[in-house]
Design goal:
60 residues; alpha+beta; three-stranded mixed β-sheet; 2 helices; 3 strands; 37% helix
Length: 60
């Protein structure tokens, strides 16, 4: 999946929230043709991180 983000918006988000669009952990995007532009993002909270880790854990 190819994602895109506005560089000016990414820089503004970095200044305001301390995270750039490409490094975000919780992302909202929409499909536009073959690409998925980022609409919103934030750093994932501990509950979301734990949930994601459990969902992606591979049993030995």
């Amino acid at each position: 999946m190819k994602t895109t983000c506005d560089s000016a918006k990414s820089e503004a988000n970095q200044r305001k929230h301390g995270v750039s669009l490409p490094l975000a952990e919780a992302v909202v995007f929409t499909q536009r043709g073959e690409t998925f532009p980022v609409i919103s993002l934030r750093k994932a909270n501990n509950r979301e991180i734990d949930s994601d880790e459990q969902a992606t854990q591979i049993d030995p």
